[in-house]
Structures are given as C-alpha cells and as structure tokens.
Amino acid sequence: MSGKKAFKPKARRPRGFEDKPASVLRAERRLIEAAVKVYDAWGFEPLQTPAFEYADALGKFLPDEERPNEGVFALEDDDGQWMALRYDLTAPLARFAAENFQDLAKPFRRYQYGDVWRNEKPGPGRFRQFVQCDADTVGAAGPAADAEMIALASEVMRAAGLKDGEYVVRVNDRRILDGVLVGIGASDPDLRMKVLRAADKLDRLGRDGVAALLGAGRKDESGDFTEGAKLPDASIETVLAFLDSTGGTRGEVIARLAPLVSSSETGEAGLAALTEIDAVLTALKVGEDRAVFDPSIVRGLGYYTGPVFEAELLATASYADGQPMQFGSVGGGGRYDDLVARFTGQLVPATGFSFGVSRFAAALAALERGVAEGSEPLVIVLNLEKDRAADYLALAAELRAGGVRAEAFLGGGNMGKQLKYADRRGADIAVIIGEDERQNGQATIKDLKLGAKLAAEIEDNRTWREEQPAQETVARGDLVKAILGRIKGANG
C-alpha cells in the first residue's frame, strides 16, 4: 500500500452562495405562492425559461458595468457559442417573446419565479445566486399598463402579509431625468448611464456619495475607486435638485418637476406619463399611502426606458442590541420597450414587476409578518421493533393516505433517542407501537408540542407521571381518526 493519504476535500461553500434550511425554503415558498395567487387572479399565465441563455441574447444590462465580462457566469458550448446563466428573468422573457412573437396572444401576460445568478462581488445580504418572482406584460403600450404593474406590486405587498402603511411603492419615469440631462448638456449615452447608476445609489450612499459619483468619483470602504461622471458643479446641483423633488402628494411632485423639464420633449413625455399613472392609480383606489412619486428612483438595470418603481418596506424591526434594521427595497420594475426590439428590430412595448424572494422573505420574518406560518403538522412513527420496519413504514403510509404528514423513523436507537429525533425535527406527534401495543391491538399517541407546553407549567411530578395529559392510548383502528382530532384541536 502507498503511504500517500487519500485526498479529502474541505467542506466549504463558494462565496456568495448560500445553503437554505427547511424553515427558509418554506417561508420563501409561502411568499411565492401568495404572489402567484395574485398574478393568477390578475390574468397572468405561468412560464418557465431555461437557466442558461446565449450570452449575446442576455445582453449587457447589469448595473455592474464597471466590470465588463464579469457580471455573468458564462461557458462556451461545444458549438463555440457562449452561454451564460440568466442574471434576471426579464431578459429571457424578451428572448422568448421575440422567438414566439407570431404565436403569442398580445398583450402577453406572464409570471415566472426561479433562480438567477450574478457574478458580482458578494457581501452581507448580497448573493451571487438568488430567487426572483416576476410578472410582465409584453405588447401593451401606454402608462395605464405601467400603472397596473404598480397596483399589482402593491397588491403583492398586501398578499405577503403587510398592512397599508408598512410598505410603499415609489414611482418615477426615467425620461424626466433624461430631460434634466438634456437641459445641462449631458445627453451622451455613456454619461447618461453613469448619472443613472449614481442616482440609483442614493438610498445606499446618501446625497454626498451620489454627488461624488456625479463628480470626480468615489472610493468605497474596501479602497476600490469608481470613476465619476465628471459633471460640472452647477450640473451636479441640478441633478441633486431633481433627486430632492420628492415629498407630498403625487400631484405636488409633478408640479415641482415641471419647471425642471419644461425645455425637453422627452422630459415632458415622462411627466405626462406620471400624470396618467396618477389618474389610473386613483381609479384603482391605490392611495397616496401605497404609491408615491419619487424622482430618486431610477433603477440600476440599463434596459428601462420609461416609468420605473420600487417596493419599499416601511415597517421597522430591531436587532437584539436595539439597533434598527434597514430593509429598503424588496422589489421593483418598470417599462422596457427596447428589450424585445433587440431581436425583432421593431418596437415592442413591455413592462413588469419583480421581487427578490430571499430578501423579501427574510424581511417578513424579521418583522414577524407573512402568510400562513409553517408546514402541515408532522407525525413520527417510532421504530421500536427492529424486525418490523415494514409495518412501521406501512403505518406511515396509512397516515399519509388519511391526510396526515407522516414519516417512519429508520435510524437506530431506543425510544429516548427516537423521541429526541422527533423533537429536533419539530414533530407534533409521535406514534408508539411496541410489542405490548401490537399484541393488544392498540397504539399510543404522544403529543410532543402539548407535552412540552405542559411540562413547563406543571410543578407536581407525581401528577405528571400519573395523568400523562399529553399521551393517550387508542385502538389501532382508531389511530388516524384520533391523530386528525388532535391536529384539528391544536389548530383551533
């Protein structure tokens, strides 16, 4: 034998990727189901696109354009074409719509949820793989379609368990800022994108940070330097004045913005869109507490062409040390009329809404908000006679057929070890059938949740031993009925 040690890889996760336990996955699934219920009710249809798309079909629209060719995870196929993991669900939708354009009923209304990947610098709360949940309308021009998306986003917030006043959808139109840029002589496409990316960081970097990015540039905490837009001081002040125009009613914001774009046809078109959006939202009874106009909202992705919006959490929570949690935006969207046109050569209007599932679910958990808690109660069938594993498995199947979520314990160990396993699994009930129960045609039901509650309340151990209030023995034929009765009683 060789003295060389066998290679043992180190168990480790790649940076920016996360493992999700059952509690997180269930919370995310409940959130997705709540959103899908809204999408279905509003007439959207489900769609699934592949994880990989050809890199040229995805296009370069990520906000991390300072790092070209590093925004996506890509590989070369055996035919020499480059494929990349999708960075969102909208670019694949544009490809799908273009590829199937003649066969689609237009407007085409679809929703989709799934993983997306971004090859970006990971950090706290910033992952390279995450789940998005989208709804989009392709083929509907005009601000009314955008207003519907904003109302839809607001409805998803409600479906997620938030009350009015605990969230707000902030709305803007990127053409208004374009009009401001025209007014200061900064309409060059590359310069425009630098200004948009700077403005999009207002909530994270503050006014001074945005001013630095509009000027010479900014060095972050790690020492990395981002080159700025190099605007003159007077132009920087004009852009900041635009970003400061928020506050008050939707009508008041429109009135403040009007003088800033009076010399720009593009800016006035954006302002007219906001005026119509306000009218539609009012008709849909989406009040000023649910949707506001905020010029600082520009969205980071480069494909937006008109109205844009973000759903922000206003409800607050605190860390253990009393420091407030900052949630910020959990979703957003906007109009992207040029995205399908990359494939077709003709203008195809489109608008959509997307939210980050993991971020939103984590925020809801911290706020103790959300849709119905937990999964169905779990029953563990203990395996007390090793030569009767088949009987225990059959019993678990019988429980499942009766509508009970159940599993048979398949590990080794005595009753104490198996009950400890049931506790760690968060099981509600354990079923005990040993030799005595089997011979007498009986089964013992141990209510683990009730037992834990009573154990904390009962001080008299003798009473506890004699009464065993959380445990009962029933006829084997009545087991399913008895368990269903306990579950129903526990759920009120």
From TrEMBL:
Residues 24-377 form the Aminoacyl-transfer RNA synthetases class-II family profile domain. The keyword S-adenosyl-L-methionine does not apply. Pfam families: HGTP_anticodon, tRNA-synt_His. The gene is hisS. It is found in: Cytoplasm. This is Histidine--tRNA ligase. Its main location: cytoplasm. Its EC number is 6.1.1.21. InterPro entries: aa-tRNA-synth_II, aa-tRNA-synth_II/BPL/LPL, Anticodon-bd, Anticodon-bd_dom_sf, His-tRNA-ligase, HisRS-like_core, HisRS/HisZ, HisRS_anticodon. Belongs to the class-II aminoacyl-tRNA synthetase family. Keywords: Aminoacyl-tRNA synthetase, ATP-binding, Cytoplasm, Ligase, Nucleotide-binding, Protein biosynthesis. It catalyses: tRNA(His) + L-histidine + ATP = L-histidyl-tRNA(His) + AMP + diphosphate + H(+). It comes from the Bacteria. It is an enzyme of class 6 (ligase). Homodimer. One of its GO terms (molecular function) is histidine-tRNA ligase activity.
